[in-house]
């Protein structure tokens, strides 16, 4: 999943679904060490890649 995100979504705005009410949105800033980093309104969200169920362009 990490290489897929880096190759196809780095620098893009995405929605990330992690189950239940957990949906995150932001620009993909980085994806390393099994952690996805999104940036939204100057704030960073770090998501464990193994918790991601689905990811799509926003």
Written description of the protein model:
A five-stranded antiparallel beta sheet has the order 4-3-2-1-5. The chain is globular and about 25 Å long. The mean pLDDT is 96. The protein has one helix spanning 2-9, and strands spanning 13-17, 23-32, 35-40, 43-48, 54-57. 12% of the residues are buried. The chain has 58 residues and is mainly beta. Strand 2 and strand 3 (35-40) form a beta hairpin. It has a single domain, classed as SH3 type barrels, CATH 2.30.30.100. Helices cover 14% and strands 53% of the residues. It has one helix and five strands; from the N terminus they run αβββββ.
Overview in brief:
The protein has a single domain, classed as SH3 type barrels, CATH 2.30.30. Helices cover 14% and strands 53% of the residues. The chain has 1 helix and 5 strands; from the N terminus they run H-E-E-E-E-E.
Order of helices and strands: HEEEEE
- Average per-residue pLDDT, rounded, comes to 96
Which strands sit side by side, in order, in the main sheet? 4-3-2-1-5
Radius of gyration: 10 Å
Q: Describe the sheet with the most strands.
A: 5 strands, antiparallel
Total tally of structural domains: 1
Structural class: mainly beta
State the share of residues found in helices, binned by percent.
Answer: 10-25%
Number of helices: 1
Based on Cα principal axes, name the global outline: globular
Which CATH C-level class is it? Mainly Beta
Low-pLDDT regions: none
């Amino acid at each position: 999943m990490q290489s897929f995100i880096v190759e196809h979504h780095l620098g893009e705005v995405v929605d990330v679904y992690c189950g239940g009410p957990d949906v995150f949105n932001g620009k993909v800033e980085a994806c390393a060490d099994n952690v996805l980093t999104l940036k939204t309104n100057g704030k960073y969200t770090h998501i464990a890649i193994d918790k991601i169920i689905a990811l799509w362009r926003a």
